[in-house]
Design a protein that fits this description.
The protein is of the alpha+beta class and about 90 residues long. About 45% of the residues lie in helices and about 20% in strands. The two termini are about 25 Å apart.
Length: about 90
């Protein structure tokens, strides 16, 4: 998760996040579902105190949580490097 995190954070620095992290409320706190590297780049490297986040309803079960996380990662992997750079 932390490999290349400094470089990733430097890509975020000029404009902030374009894609929010995804969280859900669990009691008085929020659980991170999607965007672990974005979260750590903000918190540990950039040391920013605010982050763009989408708050969703708590998934019904662990299987749904895993599916949501997998879908984001799978969609990103299918993009060619040129498309990712052009975006």
């Amino acid at each position: 998760v932390t490999v290349g995190l400094k470089d990733f954070a430097e890509q975020i620095r000029p404009y902030g996040l374009i894609q929010p992290i995804v969280v859900y409320q669990s009691g008085n706190e929020y659980e991170l579902l999607v965007g672990q590297r974005r979260y750590y780049a903000h918190k540990d490297i950039l040391e920013w105190s605010k982050i763009l986040a989408m708050i969703i309803e708590k998934p019904d079960d662990d299987e749904m949580s895993k599916t949501i996380s997998w879908l984001e990662n799978h969609a990103r992997k299918k993009m060619s490097p040129k498309i990712r750079l052009d975006m």
